Amino acid sequence: MIITNIGIIKIIPESTEAAIIVLFEAIFSFITIIFVLSDFLSLKESLGRRRGAVTKDSD
Q: Looking at the DSSP assignment, which residues form a beta bridge with residue 9?
């Protein structure tokens, strides 16, 4: 059984179509989180490299 949360309310799908939609929603949310975190980490690394290049050039 697949359950999705919206705040405090739990939604339990009653039909097969609704269960498939909830499954895709769960998969999409995990993929979105992975992309957001990877973009954040690559941005952090990029900014770190720029700071290192700026401090090396200024010496």
A: 6
